[in-house]
Write a structure and sequence with these properties.
With 252 residues, the chain is an alpha/beta fold. Helix content is 43%, strand content 15%. The protein has twelve helices and eight strands. It has helices at 16-32, 48-54, 81-86, 97-102, 107-119, 132-136, 140-151, 157-160, 181-199, 201-206, 220-224, 241-248; strands at residues 5-9, 38-43, 60-64, 91-94, 123-128, 163-167, 209-212, 231-234. The protein has an eight-stranded parallel beta barrel, surrounded by six helices. The radius of gyration is 17 Å and the shape is globular. It starts with a strand and ends with a helix. The relative contact order is 0.16.
């Protein structure tokens, strides 16, 4: 039975003090009423150790938003997968379209990051998705398949068990535009088919595929009702505990 997941991606938001306040509020809300899905918060590096400690006896798991493509060494300002793991974080988000676009992360760089994350015992939330131009050209399936093939389809079946896929149509991230539930389901089903071609039907059936891109409490129930959508990777709506809880409640 594959996991249902609601993961927050705070991006470059919240000071350490604000992050502690948000995580504490979320922990309190979720303690009162156990969620029907796994809950993950993806936070800036500086929050990880503190929030991993704060949430360790709760239903919340902590994720980094990135890690380096090198194991260690003279890479000023970088944070390795081993360092992320040492904070108590369980996950790392890799391949987000903002990292691909602004920091020029190629499939090869992401492959290195994925390998290092898994070697260090982290689970990976791996993001894929097409731009508006690619969607208008009907290239969304080819783009998603290429991004998977370029960075994660080299993994062994055993390693694959630690991968969660997040489908994020780039044209729907922070724009208020959302793929319709039908558009999202169509591509999620296609992604699952791609996984089945490489790892077999059972592995595909066990792989959690999240939707990201202007997902909020109002549209989450319709999205999550689709058979191939296993939850969401949530940006803006994860920055306020009640908004995030509203999405988590879509699994009721």
């Amino acid at each position: 039975m594959r996991k249902k997941i609601v993961a927050g991606n705070w991006k470059m938001n919240k000071t350490l003090q604000e992050g502690i306040a948000l995580a504490s509020e979320l922990k309190e809300i979720l303690a009162a009423e156990t969620p029907k899905c796994d809950v993950i918060i993806g936070t800036p590096f500086i929050h990880l150790a503190t929030l991993a400690e704060l949430t360790k006896d709760s239903v919340i798991a902590v994720s980094a938003e990135n890690c380096a493509d090198k194991a260690s060494g003279a890479y000023t300002g970088e944070v390795s997968a081993a360092m992320v793991k040492s904070t108590g974080a369980e996950y790392v988000i890799l391949g987000h379209s903002e990292r691909r676009e602004y920091y020029h992360e190629t499939p090869e760089i992401l492959k290195e990051k994925v390998d290092l994350a898994l070697e260090n015992g982290l689970k990976v939330i791996f993001c894929i998705g097409e731009s508006l131009a690619q969607r208008e050209q009907g290239e969304q399936e080819a783009v998603c398949k290429a991004e998977l093939a370029g960075s994660v389809f080299h993994l062994t079946p055993e390693q694959w068990k630690n991968i969660v896929i997040a489908y994020e149509p780039i044209w729907a991230i922070g724009t208020g535009k959302t793929a319709t539930a039908e558009q999202a389901e169509e591509i999620h089903a296609y992604i699952r088919k791609c996984v089945a071609e490489v790892y077999g039907e059972q592995a595909a059936e066990d792989t959690s595929i999240l939707y990201g891109g202007s997902c909020k409490a109002s549209n989450a129930p319709e999205l999550f009702a689709k058979p191939d959508i296993d939850g969401g990777l949530i940006g803006g709506a994860s920055l306020k505990a009640p908004d995030f809880k509203g999405i988590i409640d879509a699994w009721k």
